[in-house]
Design brief:
This protein is an alpha+beta fold and about 775 residues long. About 40% of the residues lie in helices and about 20% in strands. It has 21 helices and 26 strands. A hairpin with a 4-residue loop joins strand 13 and strand 14. Helix 13 packs antiparallel against helix 20 and helix 17 runs antiparallel to helix 18. It is globular. The N and C termini lie far apart (about 90 Å).
Length: about 775
């Protein structure tokens, strides 16, 4: 019994180690050596640039820009601000970003290394401390430490603190397509955030193979690498949305993303503030920057292109392990041959029983099916029990970590209970073989469909060693069997948490399935336990405790504020006004305007104001007409030339506005379109501008310097053109015409949607 307890403790140690080795557990102080990165020194900058929301067009936006420019100049760098109009077709965003640029000259005339992040916060409530104030201060402090050494790099180092990333990567688009320095860039290190803590994950952006980049990353030798080719393969299949994507797509420039995702509930909210940023996370970002800055500033960046991909993964002690994709199929074939040989050898030695192996298939398959069903419906069931979770649009609740633990215990309990049904003395070897076969099948599927996940074959090899020992010995050393599970546990355990944290609890099925698969590898140890039934009851009990704990933390309070929304919309054509919300459940603050009997949305549904999750209004209520100043609209030119109607339209808001949305029915054709002297480009697949627009939206214009729009466009000669204008200001809570009280402490503005806004809708008809 003592040996079994120690072996079980080793399993706990392996799981703990798999997480604790991902990032630093302490931070560098103010008295750190001047040539090293200091998190405390970086925090001094962060406190200054995280005082208030600083989205494009806000007063604080300019203050933050001026602060960053000043700090770069203190480092002896000559800075410049690049501005100009930029349009992102994918996002439909149009604005005038102001990028901050600096350049450190190298000794060689070679490709430059770029340090990249963005300084704008998400409109309109986010403080932007993590996203991406953390990136700004990482670069500022890293540059200070690097320059203190007095060493001139071989490669130029270009610093780009981009603007309008949150609106649609507009600052990056402006730089890559319009700045002379763009052609000099050979590699980009981009620092980002999608939460406010946890380890920072490395993701590669490349149009070709990753082998040379992975090789350089390993040689740079960051102390806490968190990187794997599974995430890389999945990332390449998903629509990417960081500044680095523009560098890859428009400039064919390679790059590394470094982004943390824990505490996802803070993402783009008012909780993304100075106090909540995990200090160890900021230390982790610095631990990436410094070795990579030293390495790539002196490395030939002309040789990063490759036609070959590597499989890679991180593991404690060995840091980042990689091997070429050409090894995938040989490793798979060797594993298959070894498995078949061991099975025949075991049967010959009468340590494997065909009947028991066939029976051993059942609990593994049953566990995957049962836990798969639990995971698939888990989030839907939780939302049905707790409808307030629907208010958290990105799907990771404040008690999300407790749910991950609950589903982990529940899934493990199901596995224990099922495997207990087929337990017989000394049949462990026969129970180990079927899971290994399943893992080999999974590895074969990955080899064809998702090559980046092919490192999953590594745990299989250690499983084959375990099977060999079981075939040779009836009573193997349990310590050795536990140690053979270390690679599987240390490689795979972090994924149990990563997927639901990063992608929301809707992906909790990834947790339940992974637990089932990991558990199946552990049969080589757990198979010797006669008391798996008792273990299953304990795991079920722990799962219940977690669900109870999550229930007790399912409400909203000051520590877990409720995201809510309120917008005032005035239809100037009908002279009617409504209060509108995106919320599914009203609260006292919103009910004071929408009442306890709101109207369901109707006419506004066709005006889907741009939002990350395509969220639409849910309820409205008639409101009093406020004496708002309506936009001034003037048709300055309307002529027909060569069968085309050329129109020049002037739109000038008469109040301080932040955003203008233009809609036009898809039957309206725009042959060309120019905004304030900037020509909206057509996609290669389009015959006219805005041909493939969604929700009838032409574009969202985020006001920077200019408070007007001068539109010049051509349409077919006989077309009757109708444009709907939505003019929004983010001042509802400060506007004396409304006297809307501040939210209570247990509420925050809902992110990802237009919120706290005063909107005027006006139709522009050109017959």
């Amino acid at each position: 019994m003592f040996k079994k307890i120690i072996a079980f403790l080793l399993i706990i140690i392996a799981i703990y180690w798999s997480f604790s080795a991902l990032m630093p557990n302490k931070i560098s102080q103010l008295d750190a050596d001047d040539n090293t990165f200091s998190t405390q020194r970086a925090l001094v900058h962060l406190k200054e640039i995280s005082k208030a929301p600083h989205y494009v067009g806000s007063p604080e936006h300019e203050n933050v820009r001026n602060y960053i420019v000043k700090e770069l100049e203190k480092l002896g760098l000559e800075t410049q601000v690049q501005d100009g109009y930029s349009y992102n077709k994918k996002w439909g965003s149009l604005t005038k970003p102001k990028n901050i640029l600096a350049r450190l000259k190298g000794t060689d005339n070679s490709k430059a290394l770029m340090l990249l992040t963005h300084y704008d916060s998400n409109p309109h409530s986010s403080i932007g401390s993590s996203d991406a104030g953390s990136g700004v201060v990482t670069i500022l402090e890293g540059l200070r430490a690097y320059l203190h050494e007095g060493k001139q790099p071989k490669n130029d180092i270009i610093i780009l603190i981009s603007d309008a990333e949150e609106l649609g990567l507009n600052g990056a688009e402006l730089f890559v397509n319009n700045h002379a320095w763009a052609k000099d860039v050979g590699l980009v290190l981009n620092f980002e955030a999608r939460g406010s803590g946890g380890p920072s994950y490395m993701l590669i952006e490349t149009n070709g193979g990753n082998q040379n980049m992975v090789k350089g990353f390993i040689e740079a030798n960051p102390k806490y690498p968190v990187a794997n080719s599974l995430a890389y393969s999945v990332y390449k299949k998903l629509p990417n949305d960081t500044d680095l994507t523009i560098f890859r797509e428009d400039g064919d420039i390679e790059g590394f993303n470094f982004a943390f995702i824990d505490d996802h509930f803070d993402y783009h909210t008012a909780l993304d503030n100075y106090e909540r940023l995990d200090r160890e996370t900021l230390e982790h970002q610095g631990s990436y920057l410094m070795p990579l800055l030293h390495y790539f500033s002196d490395t030939n960046l002309n040789n990063l292109k490759s036609d070959v991909d590597d499989v890679y993964f991180n593991v404690p002690l060995f840091k980042t392990v990689s091997y070429p994709n050409t090894w995938i199929f040989p490793m798979l074939i060797i594993a298959i041959v070894l498995f078949i040989a061991l099975v025949f050898y075991g049967i010959k030695k009468r340590m494997l029983n065909s009947k028991h192996m066939l029976i051993g298939i059942l609990p593994g398959i049953a566990a995957l099916v049962i836990n798969g069903v639990i995971g698939y419906f888990g989030w839907s069931v939780l939302k049905a029990i707790y409808p307030q979770y629907n208010e958290i649009l990105h799907g990771f609740t404040y008690n999300g970590y407790i749910y991950i633990l609950a589903f982990t215990f529940l899934s493990a309990g199901v596995c224990m209970w099922l495997y207990n049904k087929v337990y017989k003395p000394e049949n462990t070897a026969s129970l180990v073989a079927p899971p290994l076969l399943l893992w080999i099948v999974i590895s074969a599927v990955m080899a064809f469909e998702l090559k980046g996940a092919s490192f999953l074959i590594i745990p299989v090899y250690f499983g084959l060693v375990s099977l060999f020992i079981l075939v040779r010995q009836k009573h193997p050393n349990l310590f050795l069997m536990a140690l053979l599970l270390f690679p599987a546990l240390m490689i795979l355990s972090p994924f149990v948490k990563m997927f639901p944290v990063g992608l929301g609890l809707k992906t909790i099925i990834a947790t339940t399935l992974l637990v089932s698969l990991i558990f199946s590898l552990c049969i080589s140890l757990f198979g010797f336990s006669r008391y798996k039934n008792r273990w299953s009851y304990l795991l079920f009990f722990l799962a219940i405790c977690c669900f109870i704990s999550a229930h007790l933390k399912s409400d909203f309070n000051e520590e877990r504020p409720k995201p809510n929304s309120l917008v005032y919309i005035l239809d100037s054509d009908k002279n009617e006004a409504v209060w509108a919300t995106y919320d599914n459940i009203l609260d006292p603050w919103t009910e004071s305007y929408l009442t306890d009997n709101p109207d369901h949305i109707d006419s506004l549904s066709k005006f889907t104001i741009a939002s990350k999750y395509k969220t639409q209004f849910t309820f409205t209520k008639k409101a009093n007409i406020k004496p708002l100043k309506h936009p001034y609209i003037d048709v300055k030119k309307d002529t027909i030339v060569d069968g085309k109607r050329e129109i020049k339209l002037f739109i000038s808001p008469q109040r301080n506005v932040n955003r203008l949305e233009l809609f036009s029915d898809s039957t309206n054709v725009f042959l060309s379109f120019n905004v304030n002297g900037y020509t909206i480009p057509k996609a290669e697949s389009e015959t006219y501008v805005f041909e493939n627009r969604r929700f009838n939206r032409l574009f969202s214009y985020f006001v920077a310097d200019d408070k007007f729009l001068e539109l010049e466009f051509t349409v077919p000669e006989n077309q009757s053109t109708k444009i709907d204008l939505l003019e929004a200001s983010f001042d509802m809570l400060d506007n004396p015409l409304f006297r809307v009280p501040k939210r209570p402490a247990d509420m925050i503005p809902k992110p990802f949607v237009l919120n706290d806004a005063v909107v005027i809708k006006k139709t522009i008809q050109i017959d």
